[in-house]
Amino acid sequence: MWRNIAWKKVAIGFGWLASLAGLAVLMSFIELKKAGVVCTGVKVYIPGNEYFIDRKEVDRILQLSSYSLVGRKMEGINIHNLEKKLQANPYIASAKVYADMDGLIRVEITQRHPVLRVMNRFDQDFYVDEHGFKIPLSQNFTAPVLAANGYIDELFANRIDTLHTGLAKEIFKTVQFIKKDTLWNAQIGQIYVNEAHEIELVPRVGNHKILLGNADSLSTKFHNLEIFYKQALPQVGWDKYRMINIKYANQVVGIKTDSVMADSAAKRRIATIKKDTAIIKQNSIKDTTSQL
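The chain above was modelled as a monomer; its predicted structure follows.
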């Protein structure tokens, strides 16, 4: 009978029981120690080079001075509630609050990173972050991002929200493309939406505008524009065109400036005057001959 007992299984069972008992004792010890631990400090970590949120703003969001937590028992501090208050801020993408065994409360914050500033036709002004969420402007920091204005219908309710209109989504798609390309990120300074709800780009170099149209075939359109920049503009000059139309993926159309068109018209008028003068002189001679 005793020989049939699986002593190995019994040993394993006792091992598990001992482990569970040890774990229970350890947890009780930790809870007892935690109950007696007081907050020794608050450390706030905010990575990145954008400063929508700073230490003072964190204190304001939590509606108390972080230093007032020092000396309080950790069991009386609602860590989860502090985390929820931070996550409700529109400039915070994520927040993590936790405490170590020494009583130090650590706050790790990830800020939202805007890539676009929109000024719609209703005089509303807001940012769009890298994930396509609308966020309000900040009194603490102005982000150096592309600005879009003009006939933009996208509304803003002064809260975190997604983009709703197709045009706003196309503008965001265009900005994402521009930011990934070093040439266009350096060259494009502004986005404008005209009355036809077409996207126009305002470059930093040159007096022309670029008629993009929509966000379809962006790679092809910008490739064509790059070729036009490298081959055509150096020969004719950067001020010859007031508009470069790339909205059709298979062509680039340069529309001349008013001064160039005026010069051409003036040249045509001078040629016409010279021609008319020659005709007048010729007719005068004929007339004089006939009188003789």
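The chain is about 40% helix and 25% strand.
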